[in-house]
Amino acid sequence: MELAALRHRPESEDAFLYDPTHMRVRLHAKAGDVAGVSVLFNDPNWFEDRDGKMTFIYHEKTLVKLGTGQLQDYWGTTLTAPYRRLQYLFVVTGTDGTTTLFGDRGTRADSEEERQELGNYFRMPYFHQIDRVKTPDWVKETVWYQIFPERFANGDKANDPAGTKPWQPSDHPGREDYYGGDLQGVLDHLDDLQNLGINGLYFCPLFKASSNHKYDTIDYLEIDPDFGDKALFAKLVNEAHKRGMKVMLDAVFNHMGYASPQWLDVVENGEQSRFKDWFHIYEFPVTPYRNPVLKEGAPQFDTFAFGDNMPKLNTANPEVQDYLLTVATYWIKQFDIDAWRLDVANEVDHHFWAKFNAACKAVKPDFYILGEIWHSSQNWLNGTEFDGVMNYAFTQQIEHHFLTGKQDAKTAMALLVDQLMLYRDQTDQVMLNMLDSHDTPRIRTIAGGNEDKALQALAFTFLQTGAPCIYYGTEMGMEGDNDPDDRKPMDWSQLGQPIWQRVQQLIALRHRFAKLLGTGTTQLEVRDDGLIQVTRVLGDQTLVGLFNTTAQPVAVTVQAPAYTQQFGDGALLPLGVVVSIS
């Protein structure tokens, strides 16, 4: 047994309180190297007199294999502690027949003497509920729908910007084009979204800005007049809430737009500007901007992605903090929004996000905070900053197998398991799982126009741990390449058509088994016949999804399936899906 591969980190994603009375532990081992694991555990103060010697009395529980990643097997179990304290030690048996104890101070030979060596036990000193990572339960049963407001629907032509183009879903938009989408358009189609099964609306930025995408904010406290006004937004939130829909707004606190009054003051007054410390400025004057990518020398100030129209905010500045926290709480207090999606969240300091979290949760305890981070995110997901992140690192593995074939099935499933094991269960359950967005090509385009391939990938995503998100137009079979082509005007002519109906069926499946799919355990494997199997378990209920990504039909026997695609006569065809419940 390769002892160097054994790994466990206390008070982390390897050892965490899941609810007030249950603690979950995980052990990492080299893939295929360990035959079984158990854990010795009890209150660290539980001793009894045995033959005149005070002896620590431990319980023993067997761990189950949670999954296999690229290089590791993951083992885990759930422990209880009536008196809210635990110490624990792993007993690991290798496939070579050897057994070792693995604890806080390393490996030991398995003997009763070493089992009584209490210094080698890992500890959860006390089940402090204030330290337990808590995530909003409602998110675990939400199907999100991402709206790019300028391209969703034009409900009020009176607020169309100059030069607004006719609504043509077949267009290939330019970066500066306007089509007149607005909040009234969303209001007009709330019933359509409700019929689709959507219960979470995720809006790209609505605040006053210079561009069609609105990620270059001018005023965080105003709705952009291209979209409407605050009264209309309040009506939209109220109507959404009446329909059981939550509302998530997108905010850019990493940078402001060039036309914001704070930055314009810096441009005009230079070092004398009272806002100069709101930004990361190294040299005056700040214009003309020097772009290092264009070999123009060192830039005078930090920006988003070397874009001189988006100067980076100094979120360590108390004035900036006060301003942004006022913004964050204003939209919760005044309009009762339910969530923030935070753009470029990884480039903002952790200290600010901790203050942001505290401010939002103080107003609304079950508020949802979602960060845009494209890479491993443990440092943001320990309970004091974000509840979840946009789960690109997870969903891109799905894309690379189901849509492009860049990865074989076994590699894709292993990478997905590795991603799940990065975080606590309650965190995985509120990650945002999307296959496309305003920042990526559309899934049908990635799938080469193959609708069955796109829907198979979507079905797989809907069976995963984490909240699924649909990008507007997926249900209409829309296509589009990278930005700006992925931001075409919505094709409302496809409302209710076969593609729409198939997406509606997937959403209905997610809602039908919302508790199971929201909080149940997840097992991913590739069977000997080549089918990918997803097994979700909660209590005595088990859901199994089978996916055929091979080139051949595979014989499958399923009684009364809950959802199918390319399945019949006892065979799951290529691009097929069958979901069953027992």
Describe this structure in words.
- The protein is α+β, with helices and mostly antiparallel strands and 582 residues long.
- Helix content is 23%, strand content 27%.
- The strands form seven sheets. It has an eight-stranded parallel β-sheet with strand order 22-21-20-17-14-13-24-23.
- Strand 25 and strand 26 form a beta hairpin.
- Helix 12 (451-462) packs parallel to helix 13.
Short description:
Helix content is 23%, strand content 27%. Its EC number is 3.2.1.-.
Number of strands: 30
Mean of residue pLDDT values: 97
Instruction: Report the radius of gyration as a whole number of Å.
Output: 26 Å
Q: In angstroms, what separates the terminal alpha carbons?
A: 37 Å
Number of helices: 14
Oligomer: single chain
Helix content percent band: 10-25%
Major sheet, described briefly?
8 strands, parallel
User: Order of strands side by side in the largest beta sheet?
Assistant: 22-21-20-17-14-13-24-23
